[in-house]
Amino acid sequence: MTINKNSAKWMQLPRDVLVGHGVLEEIGDVCRDLKLKGNALIVTGSTTKNIAGKRVGNLLESAGCCSAETVLTCKATKEEVEKVMEKALEVEATFLLGVGSGRSIDLAKLASTRLELPFISVPTAASHDGIASSRASIVDNGISTSAQAQAPIAVIADTEIISAAPFRFLAAGCGDIISNYTAVLDWEFASRLRNEYFGAYAAALSRMAARVIIDCADSIKPEHETSARLVVKALVSNGVAMSIAGSSRPASGSEHMFSHALDKIAPKPALHGEQCGVGTIMMMYLHGGNWQEIREALKKIGAPVTAEELGIEDKYIIEALLHAHSIRPERYTILGSGLNPSAAEKVARITKVIN
Ligand SMILES: [Zn+2]
């Protein structure tokens, strides 16, 4: 039987996903399971190197890898991707690992995709759904863009490490998951107004992750490993929903465009998930939905719900609302062809993001 590649869906998912206390110790077993041998290249930052990077190197060497070299990175830029690729070629790496909160994972993801090598994601914080997805955020010529890459072959999320990270990261991760609600509403909207493909299964999975986080908002607390476990599973699930959809539609809509606009406009942007959470409150208002529920859940978790809590001046919130629709013009959302200044101010005031 011949497969029509246009109608068939190619869903790339991680093969081994480990979530739990102390799972980092099992990294050698994961490599054996995946037949990963030879030279490992660990992509990490200066802080995350001490938290987990060094340990990963030692564990890999004692598990029988020929060598485990480390490359330290500072920013997720195009130049840094090239630096990682050069290092991988120099040490003849056979697989890469991204050990960190986001940047290192994005860099390892993109470099390994270009080199056609497998990569393992080892998050040290749970602040966004890039830990298990096939998308990577990268800064190209000063502009933050989302690039298509491969999904990790394995995700090793040690909740002992993740729950010890500043709570702000986990709360941001919750914002990134809750944003699925408006992302899916935007997707449905685009399906009705633009006849865009809509995947009911991916949408249901995406909504479910957001529902779980909202329903458990009371119990998501700092230093609780059960909280870290819950959020990590929802973030992994987001990666799966995007793979099933074949796009980031189930997890990225107008609220993400607002966050990307803030990244461009605000002098000191907040965390991606924090901005997406605040964006979800406002976009839910525009959709005529229960924005109060979103706001309450974020508040209970301890994620920002106002411009002040984001550490961003009100004027940048308005400016980002005005520019959000132009961030990704091909992605049709509730923002349509853009808000006018009075509508932008109204949504921000009514939802108490600014006062
Ligand atoms: Zn996101």
UniProtKB/TrEMBL annotation:
One of its GO terms (molecular function) is glycerol-1-phosphate dehydrogenase (NAD+) activity. Its main location: cytoplasm. Substrate binds at residues 129, 176, 260. GO terms for biological process: glycerophospholipid metabolic process; phospholipid biosynthetic process. InterPro entries: G1P_dehydrogenase_arc, G1PDH, Glycerol_DH. It is found in: Cytoplasm. Binds 1 zinc ion per subunit. Keywords: Cytoplasm, Lipid biosynthesis, Lipid metabolism, Metal-binding, NAD, NADP, Oxidoreductase, Phospholipid biosynthesis, Phospholipid metabolism, Zinc. Its EC number is 1.1.1.261. CDD domains: Gro1PDH. NAD(+) binds at residues 102-106, 124-127, 133. Its cofactor is Zn(2+). The keyword Zinc applies. The keyword NADP applies. It catalyses: sn-glycerol 1-phosphate + NAD(+) = dihydroxyacetone phosphate + NADH + H(+); sn-glycerol 1-phosphate + NADP(+) = dihydroxyacetone phosphate + NADPH + H(+). Pathway: Membrane lipid metabolism; glycerophospholipid metabolism. Zn(2+) binds at residues 176, 256, 272. One of its GO terms (cellular component) is cytoplasm. Glycerol binds at residues 129, 176, 256, 272. PANTHER family: GLYCEROL DEHYDROGENASE, GLYCEROL DEHYDROGENASE 1. Belongs to the glycerol-1-phosphate dehydrogenase family. Catalyzes the NAD(P)H-dependent reduction of dihydroxyacetonephosphate (DHAP or glycerone phosphate) to glycerol 1-phosphate (G1P). The G1P thus generated is used as the glycerophosphate backbone of phospholipids in the cellular membranes of Archaea. This is Glycerol-1-phosphate dehydrogenase [NAD(P)+]. It comes from Methanosarcina vacuolata Z-761. The lineage of its organism: Archaea, Methanobacteriati, Methanobacteriota, Stenosarchaea group, Methanomicrobia.
